[in-house]
Structures are given as C-alpha cells and as structure tokens.
C-alpha cells in the first residue's frame, strides 16, 4: 500500500529526465522528496491510495487491467457497495449506472469514469448528512 503513495508522489516530484541529469541545485527538492517519502501518509493520501487499490483490484480481474468491464463493475458493486446494491428494487439499475458512467461508451470504466461514480455517491452521502444535521437544529 505504502508503495502506491510513493509512486504517486515520486511521479509528481521528479522531472521526466533521469536522476543523473539533475543539476545539483535540485538537492533541496530531492531532500524534500525523501522527507515526504519517509513521513506517514495523511488520511487524504490514504484515501486516494485506497481508491486506486480498490479500482485495480477489480479492474485486474479480466481483459484490460486498468479498465472495469461490465462484469468487473458488477462484481465491484455487489461486493464493495453491497448495501447500496441490495437496496435497489429495480434490477436494471446497475445496467443503467454502467451506461451512464461509461462516458466514452467503450463498454469499460476507466479510473476517471470510476471516480465519477465514487464522487457521485460521496456527494449523495454528504447531502443526506447535511439534511440530517439540519433536521436536528
Ligand atoms: Ca469508458
């Protein structure tokens, strides 16, 4: 897990050129980068890492390792969001969700399309949280 964070931050922190070609003036950046590597990931960083990990866990099951096929999407929904899925009385809801999320209509969900699902669910959760707290006042 920690490896993923390192990967993310090292991708951002380093120019595409190799280590050898870095001028000595970059030593500060390198030191900061090392420090960032050593420190414990923040809650936000861990959340990002988890989202990537869970996406790859399902996307890696068949076909393209970095896209969710319909089967992988259903497997994800029925496992990770079982409470949500079970509550849906309409059996076509997952089909329609998949179609709606698949913005480029290639029959696969890439990470961006997957994030739209997570984002949408997070917004819905947050809205019901806000509503609930307004009722209490
Ligand atoms: Ca797609």
UniProtKB/TrEMBL annotation:
Coiled coil: none annotated. It comes from the Eukaryota. Keywords: Calcium, Disulfide bond, Metal-binding, Repeat. InterPro entries: EF-hand-dom_pair, EF_Hand_1_Ca_BS, EF_hand_dom, S100/CaBP7/8-like_CS, S100_Ca-bd_sub, S100A11. Residues 12-43 are annotated as: Disordered. Residues 89-124 form the EF-hand domain. Residues 12-28 have a biased composition (Polar residues). PANTHER family: PROTEIN S100-A11, S100 CALCIUM-BINDING PROTEIN. Homodimer; disulfide-linked. Facilitates the differentiation and the cornification of keratinocytes. This is Protein S100. It comes from Mesocricetus auratus.
């Amino acid at each position: 897990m920690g490896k993923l964070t390192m990967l993310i931050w090292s991708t951002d922190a380093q120019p595409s050129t190799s280590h050898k070609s870095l001028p000595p003036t970059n030593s500060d950046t390198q030191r900061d980068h090392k420090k960032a590597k050593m420190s414990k990931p923040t809650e936000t960083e861990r959340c990002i890492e988890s989202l990537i990990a869970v996406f790859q866990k399902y996307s890696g099951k068949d076909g393209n390792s970095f896209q969710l096929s319909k089967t992988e999407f259903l497997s994800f929904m029925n496992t990770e969001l079982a409470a949500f899925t079970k509550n849906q009385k309409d059996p076509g809801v997952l089909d329609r969700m998949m179609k709606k999320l698949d913005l480029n209509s290639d029959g696969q969900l890439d990470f961006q399309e997957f994030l739209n699902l997570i984002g949408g669910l997070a917004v819905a959760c947050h809205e019901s949280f806000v509503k609930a707290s307004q009722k209490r006042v």
